[in-house]
Design goal:
Adenylate kinase, globular, Rossmann fold, transferase, binds adenosine monophosphate, P-loop_NTPase
Length: about 190
């Protein structure tokens, strides 16, 4: 199965993508994770995206599209994948359509996690606190200032994807405010439907 998981920052995409990937035995492809690794490894891509990521801005389409195009060709993605954090713009969605179409493939489903904006800030700040409590370093964009930018980017650039996929009859929306296990069940039910 080829699935896209959509949702604002703090909606639980990462947590749910990992659970879903285990359940379906397909990889979770998180562009955020791939880019954070590139930043940590100080690769040429990492150096290009570091500042934008710290600010909470999106990185350029062509760069992230190239990263995904390469990743979905890897052997573990042959039977399917869950895209977590991609596409985030209509341009990226079109590029994804093209890259799948040239291989005679298509997406099976787009799952949207719906969470009220007021809840998101609390969740993100909590995630940062928990990371520090566990002796890890918090994400550099898990700050109030960067979250404001991330939400603005989501509203402006990513929310239009809801209409984009809805018009294709691919979108299923799930209440992301439920407990984690209930969201996971709802996602599986949506995929079965
Ligand atoms: P995430 O881990 O999905 O919250 O992504 C963290 C950051 O990585 C985002 O705020 C962007 O700076 C960058 N990023 C991840 N995925 C994308 C994407 N599809 N398009 C543009 N920027 C992205």
């Amino acid at each position: 199965m080829r699935i896209v998981l959509l949702g604002p920052p703090g909606s639980g995409k990462g947590t749910q993508a990992i659970r879903l990937a285990e359940h379906l035995a397909i990889p979770q492809l998180s562009t955020g994770d791939i880019l954070r690794c590139a930043v940590a490894a100080e690769t040429s891509i990492g150096k290009k995206v570091k500042t934008a990521m710290e600010r909470g801005e999106l990185v350029p389409d062509e760069l992230v599209v190239a990263v995904v195009a390469e990743r979905i060709l890897q052997a573990d993605a042959k039977t399917g994948f869950i895209l977590d954090g991609f596409p985030r713009t209509v341009g990226q969605a079109r590029a994804l359509d093209d890259m799948l179409r040239t291989r005679g493939l298509d997406l099976d489903c787009v799952l949207e996690l719906k969470v009220d904006e007021e809840v998101l800030l609390g969740r993100i700040l909590n995630r940062a606190k928990e990371a520090v409590g566990n002796g890890q370093s918090a994400r550099t964009d898990d700050t109030e200032e960067a979250l404001k930018v991330r939400l603005k980017e989501y509203r402006r650039q990513t929310e239009p994807l809801i209409d984009y996929y809805c018009a294709r009859g691919m979108l299923k929306s799930i209440d992301g405010l439920q407990p984690i296990a209930s969201v996971a069940t709802s996602l599986l039910e949506a995929l079965d439907a």
